[in-house]
């Protein structure tokens, strides 16, 4: 079941442009109490608004006896027009589908042996039977009723959902409970969209089509399939299966009002994160550029050589599309003793799909606390001369770069998945001098560790600690690292007065499937064991006394990129002057790198110093004429200066090259609106909804535009969606209440903070200004 991820999280993990764009196009709208435009009619009732999120497929007849039997006793809790809500799934004819028409994995596996062998070990195959999942979904059923579990089972057990099994009076044993997401569910889906929460249309399962292309629903023999392999392929394969949109039907989700009795909340957004990342080349805004396009399947279903002795007719030229879906599901193979899957998962988490690693860890800088108001920053570490004395109090800046994942880390259910930074200081004998991120004796993580997580808070101001998402109201904070971004983690420690020789600093990103509290609850066992994977690590060896430059390691980034990652992390930490300074170092090291100047402009725009951004954008465009990334930001500067015509020209050039850039579509739509060109503004926002149906700015602006263009019914729908999806201004009260009760984690809600390993009070950032001195000693 997905977590709820609201927009108010203090950590600015999103590209700066998202916040900038919304400030122009929708930020003012979030303050509107009754929706956009004074003459907009009242929002439709909640049931109507909720139904707008479901498929437009309607019931078509003649109905089957199975459908009639289920319909006569089914709990249509959310209306007959939306039988599967809170899931957005729908059958191709709007009817209930008999579980008997779905082919089992064993049936498919008697030919596709390798696909079956791999599938059996995956999260898909075990999506419904894993005990921790069942414990969680049964808690929802016990509290609210089985009909609410449709929200979960649309993706965890599609057959149970579509067969109408999720209603009162049905047996506890579900159809396909041992298969979860089985072969015939994925291979029968006819269409999907970017709404998520199971936003697919399930066709009638068939392993063959007839000579006219119609599905053959009667039993089909192996001989028939072998005689008509082309018809078999047409029945089970379609281009949709190779798209990210297919995966996004489930790997994107929301919590609708029909589940939480509150309002729509964004839950998981892997599809959106992927779509905006450099891996897709659909947006010009990422900080780094990729040469090729990657989809979900590129990383999670790569074509690989068949193992020795393996057999599958789906292989071509000795290569087979992996059906392992390697990701972060490290507990399933351990629990079910799938040793092969466990080994491959660990390798995947360490090395990534391309074998080049998923993180870059850089212990980038060091500072010594002094009485001076501007203690120097030694950076980049390894390339500077500096000295250290016994008893020194030091601050280390660690940069974690998400370089190899096309979505956030951690993705999806980050409220109970657990990944963190383990930072250690050890003397030359290996004795631990300081550590942040240790595992406590009871298995719980050090509460003050820097973890890539969030905190879901309910109406009682308490933590939703066992994934009770239907009680969620707000995020206290969100420490996710988005694709291509960097995060700064700062550690303060003191060296012993008697220390001699060398000491080491080590930063390691660790991962386990669940936090200890949740898995202990789920398995009804204290300190339930889970594997912990070291995903990436870096160690720097320093000496008491003088330290001189050392040769960079083979995997270490070049100096300009180290500064660039530091600048990105400082930007997200809202340390704007320091971020500009870091990007200036990039420009000094690589004066031909246009993005160094664009990056400085991004910081200056975030800082609302638009005039300061102009020369940097001009320099970027002189180095890379027509660069869409620089043009996008120049358009924001132009529009701020009232030069809307010029902004439109720049944004049109961006959209011409990146027609699926959500940010460019959003800003161009608003610029047309400013020009009173309502038809073109409407077209841009409609295109934006084609990429992200839940874009808040699109709902707000389209409600106004449709009204002004005379399309009142559409205006009412968009107004209702905006009213449902906009932030609740009272929700932050719950977050503040929670943080007030939990000082051990409250610091994580502050974008610029230091993890203190000395026990001393930490000086506030405002009291210390940090100055970089090239090659200076501490």
pLDDT < 50 stretches: 1-34, 38-55, 763-778
Gap between N and C termini: 50 Å
Largest sheet report: 5 strands, antiparallel
* Count of helical stretches: 30
Helix content class: 25-40%
| Cα shape | globular
Mean pLDDT: 89
What is the strand content?
Answer: 15-25%
Instruction: Please give the oligomerization state of what you see.
Output: single chain
Output the structural class. alpha+beta
The rounded Rg comes to 27 Å
Number of strands: 22
Structure summarized in a few sentences:
The chain is α+β, with helices and mostly antiparallel strands and 778 residues long.
Task: Explain what the structure shows.
This protein is of the alpha+beta class. Helices cover 35% and strands 15% of the residues. The protein contains 30 helices and 22 strands. Strands 12, 13, 14, 18 and 19 form a 5-stranded antiparallel sheet that branches. Strands 8-11-17-21 form a 4-stranded mixed sheet, with helices on one face. A hairpin with a 7-residue loop joins β2 and β3. The chain is globular, with a radius of gyration of 27 Å. It starts with 15 loop residues before the first helix and ends in a 6-residue tail after the last strand. The N terminus and C terminus are likely disordered.
């Amino acid at each position: 079941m997905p977590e709820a991820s609201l927009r108010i999280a203090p950590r600015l993990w999103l590209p700066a442009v998202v916040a900038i764009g919304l400030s122009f196009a929708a930020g003012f709208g979030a303050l509107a109490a009754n929706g956009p435009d004074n003459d907009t009619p009242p929002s439709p009732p909640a049931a109507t608004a909720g139904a707008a999120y479901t498929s437009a497929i309607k019931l078509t007849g003649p109905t089957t006896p199975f459908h009639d039997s289920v319909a006569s006793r089914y709990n249509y809790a959310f209306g007959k027009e939306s039988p599967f809500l809170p899931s957005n799934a729908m059958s191709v004819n709007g009817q209930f589908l008999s579980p008997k028409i779905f082919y089992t994995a064993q049936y498919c596996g008697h030919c596709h042996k390798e696909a079956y062998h791999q599938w059996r070990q995956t999260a898909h195959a075990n999506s419904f039977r894993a005990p921790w999942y069942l414990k969680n979904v049964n808690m929802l059923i016990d509290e609210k009723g089985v009909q609410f579990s449709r929200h979960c089972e649309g993706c965890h057990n599609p057959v149970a959902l579509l067969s109408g099994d999720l209603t009162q009076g049905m047996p506890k044993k579900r159809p396909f409970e041992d298969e979860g997401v089985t072969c015939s569910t994925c291979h029968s889906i006819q269409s999907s969209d970017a709404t998520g929460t199971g936003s697919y249309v399930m066709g009638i399962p068939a392993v063959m089509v007839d000579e006219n292309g119609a599905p053959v629903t009667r039993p089909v023999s192996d001989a028939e399939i072998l005689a008509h392999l082309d018809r078999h392929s047409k029945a089970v394969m379609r281009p949709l299966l190779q798209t990210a949109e297919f995966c996004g039907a489930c790997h994107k989700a929301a919590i609708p009002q029909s589940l939480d009795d509150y309002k729509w909340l964004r839950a998981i957004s892997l599809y959106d994160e992927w779509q905006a990342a450099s891996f897709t080349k659909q947006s010009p805004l990422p900080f780094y550029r990729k040469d090729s396009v990657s989809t979900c399947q590129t990383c999670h279903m790569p074509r690989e050589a068949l193992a020795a002795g393996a057999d599958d007719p789906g292989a071509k030229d000795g290569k087979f599309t992996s059906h392992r879906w390697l990701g972060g599901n490290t507990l399933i193979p351990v629990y079910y003793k799938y040793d092969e899957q466990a080994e491959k998962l660990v390798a995947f988490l360490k090395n990534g799909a391309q074998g080049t690693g998923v993180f870059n860890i850089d212990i980038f800088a060091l500072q010594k606390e002094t009485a001076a108001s501007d203690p120097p920053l030694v950076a980049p570490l390894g390339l500077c001369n500096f000295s250290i004395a016994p008893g020194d109090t030091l601050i280390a800046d660690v940069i974690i770069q998400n370089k190899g994942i096309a979505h956030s880390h951690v993705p999806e259910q980050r409220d109970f998945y657990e990944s963190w930074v383990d930072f250690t200081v050890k003397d030359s004998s290996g004795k631990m001098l300081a550590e942040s991120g240790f595992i406590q004796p009871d298995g719980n993580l050090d509460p003050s560790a820097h973890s890539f997580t969030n905190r879901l808070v309910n109406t009682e101001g308490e933590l939703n600690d066992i994934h009770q998402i239907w009680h969620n109201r707000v995020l206290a904070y969100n420490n996710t690292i988005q694709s291509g971004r960097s995060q700064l983690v700062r550690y303060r420690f003191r060296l012993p007065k008697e220390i001699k020789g060398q000491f080491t600093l080590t930063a390691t990103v660790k991962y386990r499937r669940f936090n200890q509290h949740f898995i202990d609850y789920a398995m009804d066992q204290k300190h339930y064991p889970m594997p912990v994977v070291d995903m990436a690590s870096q160690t720097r060896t320093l000496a008491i006394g003088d330290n001189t430059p050392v040769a960079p390691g083979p995997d270490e980034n070049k100096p300009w990129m180290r500064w660039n990652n530091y600048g990105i992390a400082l930007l997200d930490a809202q340390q704007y002057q320091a971020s500009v300074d870091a990007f200036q170092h990039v420009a000094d090291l690589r004066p031909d790198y246009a993005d160094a100047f664009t990056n400085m402009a991004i910081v200056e725009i975030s800082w609302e110093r638009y005039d300061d951004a102009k020369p940097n954008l001009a320099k970027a465009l002189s180095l890379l004429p027509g660069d869409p990334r620089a043009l996008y930001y120049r358009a924001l500067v132009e529009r701020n200066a009232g030069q809307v015509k010029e902004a439109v020209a720049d944004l049109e050039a961006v959209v011409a090259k990146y027609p699926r850039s959500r940010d460019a579509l959003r800003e161009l739509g608003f610029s047309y609106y400013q020009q009173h060109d309502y038809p073109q503004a409407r077209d841009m926002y409609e295109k934006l909804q084609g990429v992200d149906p839940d874009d808040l700015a699109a709902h707000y602006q389209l409600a106004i535009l449709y009204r002004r263009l005379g399309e009142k019914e559409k205006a009412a729908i968009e107004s209702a969606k905006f009213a449902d999806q906009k932030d609740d201004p009272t929700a932050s009260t719950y977050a503040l209440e929670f943080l007030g009760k939990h000082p051990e984690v409250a610091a994580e809600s502050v974008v610029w903070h230091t993890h203190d390993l000395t026990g001393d009070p930490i000086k506030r950032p405002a009291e210390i200004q940090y100055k970089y001195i090239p090659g200076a000693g501490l």
